[in-house]
Amino acid sequence: MRLSTSMMYDQQTRGVTNAQSSWLKAGEQLSTGKRVINPSDDPLAAAQAVVLSQAQAENKQYKLARDFATQSVSLETSVLDDATAAVQSAQSLVILAGNGALSDDDRESYATQLEGVRAQLLNLANSTDGNGRYIFAGYNSGSAPFTEDASGSIVYNGGTDAITQKVDASRTMTTSHTGAQVFMSITSNAVKEPDGSASETNIFETLDIAINALKQPIQNTDDATRAVAKEALDKTTRGLGNSLNNILKVQSELGTQLSELEKLDSLGDDRSTLQEVRMSALVNVDYTSAISTYTMQQQALQASYKTFSDMSQMSLFQMNS
User: Which Gene3D superfamilies match (predicted)?
Assistant: First the structure.
């Protein structure tokens, strides 16, 4: 087989070009710190990197979701701390108001104080998150969940479903309870009324029972009237105790979730670290190997240049030119 002068020239040119390309590629890896820059560099590693990149993005999204969840749960916990204090204050006032030696004016004074607690609880029940969204309104967070109707009773107008947030691949948790769950519910083991009937579930109605009773004069009345007034305060005491236990139950749930969110964050951070290590192994350059390759490719390129130069000096090429 004969090799023409032009074929030999083309082969030498391709050799120089290939050597130059390999040298530039090694230089690019060193400058970028990436071994896999294009999918063609390592198709298998590139494919795995795409999947891993998606997992990293998902992990970051869950991290952000947990941040929002932590803020929501912490805010609700703070509001319920104040609600707990308000209910405990109301309990103390009801006990003091039960003193049979009090005058009607004293009883009226306690009724006024309980109205203040009621107003405080209503304000807490209509708390917002600082962005105008009502905490206890469920998914109807654009309007106040609790309003006062024409008769003066507090009614719930918020959503029926609590707000939930997916905080990890297989974990969804409640980040904001509805007002009905907090202020208009009692636990399954709540204290019943003496006749066996269920206790009042609406904490505002419970307070109204005591407020209305304390506003009724009992001085210079018969024992039956006094007994009715006392029973109203006893009913309020039971109702406030049940409502407080329900609020504490919600607080306990929130506290458990805050602890879980911290653990999920820790797991997410560990997962992120492992993903970064894995991604580095897939696409990042090994500088020791890359420097060695760069040096070798540089030497190969120089050898190609020399070979091409020497061959160009041959008489055959000179004559051809």
Answer: f41 fragment of flagellin, N-terminal domain (1.20.1330.10)
Domain limits for position 316 = 286-321
Measure the CA–CA gap between 210 and 281, rounded to whole angstroms: 70
Q: What is the DSSP string of 75-140?
A: HHHHHHHHHHHHHHHHHHHHHHHT-TT--HHHHHHHHHHHHHHHHHHHHHHT-B-SSS-BTTSTT-
Answer whether 124's CB lies under 8 Å from 136's CB: no
Q: State whether 190 and 299 are in the same domain.
A: no
**Considering only CA atoms, which of 212, 213, 225, 74 is closest in space to residue 135?**
74
Number of structural domains found in the chain? 2
Q: Would residue 39 count as lying in a domain?
A: no
- Per-residue pLDDT of 264-321, as tens digits, reads 999 999 999 998 888 777 776 654 665 555 466 555 555 554 555 555 555 444 544 4
Domain shared by 257 and 309, yes or no: no
Is 7 inside any structural domain?
no
Contact in structure between 159 and 136 (CB atoms under 8 Å): no
Block residue for tokens 């999920």: 264
Tell me how far apart the alpha carbons of residues 171 and 169 are, in angstroms, rounded to a whole number. 6
Residue for token pair 């005058």: 103
Determine the Cα–Cα distance for residues 70 and 265; give it in Å rounded to an integer: 10
Provide the whole-model pTM: 0.78
Q: With 0-12 CB in 10 A as exposed, 13-18 as middle and 19+ as buried, what is 124?
A: buried
Phi, psi of 207 (to 5 degrees): -65, -35
